[in-house]
């Protein structure tokens, strides 16, 4: 179903569509870099000081990690989805006749979601070592 444009608006030409796609890809990559920074910081904290942190400290950094990594994931997924949306409207898409096995935004969302779960599991492993060591002493 073709959407009608608001009064006074015009459709994007091919160059504007491809520029929009490029801009959304840039935003998506920026969101992915933000995500990787958050995950790296959490893993480094877990590795070096995870055993010594108090329960409230772990809860605080874990809450911040989950919140910010979720928003970074939502950003990268959303930006990749928007890029795909605009690319599908372009003549280049019709000429190339690209068929995706899996959409980039789905792949990125799953990969980043698994990264969040794996990071939480890593912190849990570090913390469970501390709990086992405390029981042995």
CA-CA gap between termini: 69 Å
The major pleated sheet works out as: none
Beta-strand percentage range:
under 5%
Q: Percent of residues in helical segments?
A: over 70%
**Extended strand count:** 0
Q: Please give the count of helices.
A: 4
The helix-strand sequence is HHHH
Provide an overview of this structure.
This protein has 137 residues and is mainly alpha-helical. Helix content is 80%, strand content 0%. It is built from 4 helices and no strands. Helix 1 (14-49) packs parallel to helix 4. The longest helix is centred in the first third of the chain and has 36 residues, at 14-49. The chain is elongated, with a radius of gyration of 21 Å. The mean pLDDT is 87.
Brief description of this entry?
This protein is an all-alpha fold and 137 residues long. 80% of the residues lie in helices and 0% in strands.
